[in-house]
Write a structure and sequence with these properties.
It holds the Pfam family GrpE. One of its GO terms (biological process) is protein folding. Keywords: Chaperone, Coiled coil, Cytoplasm, Stress response. Homodimer. Its main location: cytoplasm. This protein has a domain at 148-208: Roll (Nucleotide Exchange Factor Grpe, Chain A, domain 2). The chain has helices spanning 23-26, 53-103, 105-115, 124-144; strands at residues 147-150, 162-169, 179-184, 186-189, 192-195, 197-203. Helix 3 (105-115) runs antiparallel to helix 4. It is of the alpha+beta class. Strands 1-4-5 form a 3-stranded antiparallel sheet. The chain has a 3-stranded mixed sheet with strand order 2-6-3, with no helix packed on it. The chain has 4 helices and 6 strands; from the N terminus they run ααααββββββ. Helices cover 40% and strands 15% of the residues. A hairpin with a 2-residue loop joins strand 4 and strand 5 (192-195). It is elongated.
Length: 217
């Protein structure tokens, strides 16, 4: 009996191993096709685009010029404001002086009439009465304008408003440091001291003790 030999299958050659996938190739897509529309390059982290140096220099130069122009305009406006304020202040002061001068014109006219009276035909009492009338009228006008007279007998001595030129013995202790007499009145205008009042001030001195009588007297 004839034995048949088993036919062996031809050996299939083994496939070469595939190269490992690296990190660089893992996210890479297919190679770009010529003529195809490529996707936009993503912006850097944070979404900020890098400005070219030349464009940045040009932009900063323009901003600097704008700031210089603004500074010059502000300086000119401030200078005009100072000049306008000084001019308005001078005009206000001139108007105030003119108003005071106008308010005393009537008193000046009255004083002129008194000064030109005929001394031979006018009694001295009439001249004195005319002068006193002018004085009261002038004082009333200046008081209404803001002038305040300082110094009166019996006032408490105030070093900010009085100038003590002499002292006098006080009759009582209660009159210590009171104005005894006014030698020259002072004046204050609008809160500003024009001239202190020159006054004499009472000073109290304790009387010397009286010796007690000796025993037997």
């Amino acid at each position: 009996m004839t034995k048949h030999k088993a036919h062996k299958k031809p050996a299939v050659p083994a496939r070469p191993p595939e190269p490992p996938v690296t990190a660089d190739l893992a996210g890479a897509g297919p190679p770009p096709v010529e003529g195809a529309v490529q996707p936009e390059t993503p912006a850097p982290a944070g979404g900020a685009l890098v400005e070219p140096p030349a464009q940045m220099i040009q932009r900063l130069s323009e901003e600097l010029e704008q700031l210089k122009d603004q500074r010059l305009r502000l300086a000119a406006e401030f200078d005009n404001f100072k000049k306008r304020t000084q001019r308005e202040r001078a005009e206000t002061w001139s108007r105030a002086q003119a108003e005071i001068a106008a308010s005393i014109l009537d008193s000046l006219d009255d004083l002129g009439r008194v000064a030109h009276l005929d001394a031979e035909q006018t009694p001295a009492s009439d001249v004195l009465a005319g002068v006193e009338l002018v004085e009261r009228k002038l004082a009333r006008v200046l008081t209404s304008a803001g002038l305040e007279r300082l110094g009166a007998e019996g006032d408490s001595f105030d070093p900010h408003a009085h100038e003590a030129v002499s002292t006098a013995p006080a009759p009582t202790a209660a009159q210590d440091h009171l104005v005894a007499s006014v030698l020259q009145p002072g004046y204050r205008f609008g809160g500003a001291l024009l001239r202190p009042a020159r006054v004499s001030v009472y000073v109290w001195q304790e009387p010397p003790p009286v010796d007690a009588p000796a025993p037997g007297w």
